[in-house]
Amino acid sequence: MSFQTADLYDAHEGKVDVCLPFFKSFGLKTKFHGEIVTIKCHEDNTLVGDMLRNENGLGKVLVIDGGASLRCALVGDLIAAAAVENQWKGIVVNGCIRDSAEINKMAIGIKALNTNPTKTVKRKTGIANEAVNFANVTFKPGAFLYSDEDGILVSESALI
Q1: Is 36 exposed, middle or buried (0-12, 13-18, 19+ CB in 10 A)?
Q2: Which domains does the chain have, with CATH numbers?
Q3: For the segment 80-106, what is each residue's pLDDT rounded down to a tens digit?
């Protein structure tokens, strides 16, 4: 189903939260939406890789709170390819990605702060499926995210 975040905002004003416009778009899908799944991690993408490689993402969007670190990338081409294979609708990264040229050829939508070629450490740290807050929005597991060229909206219930 096609949507515009501006139209969703107008129809549900006061019932949606709008992310501050910090994010750049990557991947072939300029629009994506789905139920929110969260990971909070800092410069360690072990949980990100595990989730996107091992979980069916049908109808879901992974929201990664990397603490806005720009020192390394939390998603690269191999992890993004796993997300496509496991049917994730999109990824929002409060941090960086890498391999952007390859990711931009993939059938997925990703919003991230920027790119950085540096890989993460692997300490197996992080927390999954807890509320995270960044860009002036709280992302709760089970809520819904809508992303397009104009920005990102979050709603407690499905809008479309």
Answers
A1: buried
A2: 5-154 (3.50.30.40)
A3: 999 999 999 999 999 999 999 999 999
